[in-house]
Amino acid sequence: MFATRWSPFVQPWWNQFNQLHNEVNRLFDPRGDGRRGVDLSVYPPINLWEDGDSVQVEAELPGFRLEDLEIFVTGQNELSIKGERKFQAPEKGVQHRQERFFGSFNRVLTLPVAIDANQVDARLENGVLRIRLGKPEQAKPRKITVKG
What we know:
The chain is mainly β and 148 residues long. The protein has one helix at residues 12-27, and strands at 46-50, 54-60, 69-74, 78-85, 103-110, 120-125, 128-134. The longest helix is centred in the first third of the chain and has 16 residues, at 12-27.
């Protein structure tokens, strides 16, 4: 007589149990505040660099509109970007997956140098927010002439 060992891992219901387990874990993921894994401390993703006259910031914000965003300069070197994307349920049909972030965010950056709050330009084009923050005269690099 041939005997096989029973294993719960090969039962058809095991796949359904694993799927339920994964969905519950994703629902209670502390990084996403219930928003399916979005880490709000690093949203939106940002590039920041400095050139001679300014500090440049780029943020990826697909699907946002100008009226959904607020930009603040506080102190001499702090930039705050706030925004909100409202949830849009499909008008017809059944939604099976929601992976894009919706809700509000607030990203605060400490800039590497002081900036002039009167020299700030922000543009939203093709889902990318570009901010140019001008440096005050005292923070701009100066060429020093060496005397001999």
